[in-house]
Write a structure and sequence with these properties.
Largest sheet: none
Radius of gyration: 26 Å
Order of helices and strands: HHHHHHHHHHH
Strand content: under 5%
């Protein structure tokens, strides 16, 4: 028989091609076999995914630095690693959408309660309040309802576009890490670095989400604290930082985050003014 990949003549009992190394497939593909091969290749003990996940937990610097040094077949591609985590998160969070929104609301319970109180306050009669007081209460109710509606829409937006937001955050983290560690890595190398780190924290967040459903919502928010600690741990090992220098670099990272936040806030504010001005012109 001939190899279906390169056309080389093979022995009848050959399992692999001696020329290209291709697997000799003799069986037809059934759906059951397809699923089995998928899970074996993805989650098998000797799979690249399992190896990448395990080493990111204990020695993240080996995965990152070896990949940057050219070791590409040993580990899962960082974008694929992150995409798997983002895809699983998207499926799980949407399947448990009510629990996801409930957890978000539980974390902001005090703020939501205050807003709901403002939204549900009664409008006094003209005999018990002045016209100015009545208009003020009406405005507070309107703003409170808009806030509640916005919070609901934000949660729904996160559920719908979680995978897209994941890669947006990846770019933001990469910009911040490049700002924090200007040398020796290029921006593209920071994207690789953050892809692995962010991907690993995504898997931990999924586990924390299930514990939050069964035990307490605060566990899910605690996963964000873990993400910060793990990020510092991974970066510290990659750059061989002392604890003190690691903390200083973390504050530089936060400073960059504040600058980005202020910048985007100003841009959004200016866009809002421009839209309002155009609206007035149309009128």
């Amino acid at each position: 028989m001939d190899c279906k990949n390169c056309g080389e003549t093979l022995k009848d009992n050959a399992n692999f091609c001696n020329t290209c190394g291709g697997l000799v497939v003799k069986q037809r593909i059934h759906f059951k076999r397809l699923l089995v091969e998928f899970f074996i290749n993805l989650f098998g003990v000797d799979s690249r995914f399992f190896l990448t996940l395990r080493k990111m937990a204990v020695k993240p610097e080996e995965v990152v630095l070896e990949y940057l040094d050219g070791v590409r077949k040993r580990y899962v591609n960082p974008f694929a690693f992150l995409a798997i985590g983002a895809g699983l998160s998207l499926i799980i969070f949407n399947y448990f959408a009510d629990d996801f929104i409930a957890i978000q609301n539980a974390v902001n319970q005090d703020q939501i309660s205050l807003i709901q109180k403002q939204a549900n306050q009664k409008i006094p009669s003209k005999e018990n309040a002045t016209e100015k007081q009545i208009e003020k209460i009406k405005l507070e109710k309107k703003i409170a309802k808009m806030q509640l509606d916005s919070m609901q829409k934000i949660s729904e937006f996160m559920l719908r576009y979680f995978n897209l937001l994941t890669f947006v955050f990846l770019l933001i983290y990469s910009v911040l890490s490049k700002w924090t560690f200007w040398k020796p890595h290029y921006f593209g190398e920071h994207v690789i670095m953050n892809g692995y780190i962010y991907g690993f924290t995504t898997f931990f967040t999924i586990i924390a989400f299930f514990f939050a459903i069964t035990i307490h919502p605060s566990i899910y928010m605690g996963s964000f604290i873990f993400s910060i600690i793990y990020y510092m741990y991974a970066i510290g090992r990659i750059y061989k930082l002392s604890p003190g220098k690691n903390i200083l670099k973390f504050f530089r990272f936060l400073l960059g985050l504040v600058i980005l936040f202020v910048f985007f806030s100003i841009v959004i504010f200016l866009i809002g003014i421009a839209i309002a001005a155009l609206g007035l012109i149309d009128l």
